[in-house]
Amino acid sequence: MIPNAKLNFALEKLKLHFIQKILDIPEKNVCQQDTTAPGIEGLCLLLRQLAYPCLYSDLIHSFGEPIPELSMIYHITLDFIYNTHSHRIT
After folding, report:
1. What is the three-class DSSP state of 76?
2. Residue from 6, 7, 9 nearest 49 by CA
3. 21-59, pLDDT tens digit by residue?
4. What are phi and psi of 52, to 5 degrees?
5. Which pLDDT belongs to residue 12?
6. At what angle do helices 39-51 and 67-89 cross, to 10 degrees?
7. How far is the C-alpha of 33 from the C-alpha of 20, rounded, in Å?
8. Distance in angstroms (rounded) separating the CA atoms of residues 58 and 15
9. Are residues 40 and 48 in contact, defined by beta-carbon separation less than 8 angstroms?
């Protein structure tokens, strides 16, 4: 997903890593059922869904993960950002 960052997110690859660092997203997310995913993948999935909501089945080709794992990665990233930065949101 990162090589097409400019096309998919209107951001450059380095800016995605900068956003990951600023939001303190860990390098590795561990979901339920021991599903693991790189933090940058979770960020990309989150940004993609927030920018243009679609079915997870439409994202299988882009992310190469089955639907349940995409859902877990999305939700753990969203929960992490909310739990870490909710004081800035509310």
Report:
1. helix
2. 9
3. 999 999 999 988 888 999 999 999 999 898 888 999 999
4. -150, 85
5. 73
6. 80
7. 24
8. 25
9. no
28 vs 34: CA distance, rounded Å:
12
pTM: 0.85
The HSE-up count of residue 15 (CA atoms within 13 Å, CB side) is: 8
φ, ψ for residue 83, nearest 5 deg: -65, -30
Q: What sections of 23-66 are H helices per DSSP?
A: 39-51, 60-63
Give ∠ CA 66-45-3 in degrees, rounded to 5. Answer: 100
Element (H, E) at 52: none
* CB 50, CB 42: distance < 8 Å: no
**Structure-token pair, residue 75:** 């939700």
> Does the pLDDT of residue 8 top 90, yes or no?
no
Q: And the tokens for 80?
A: 């992490």
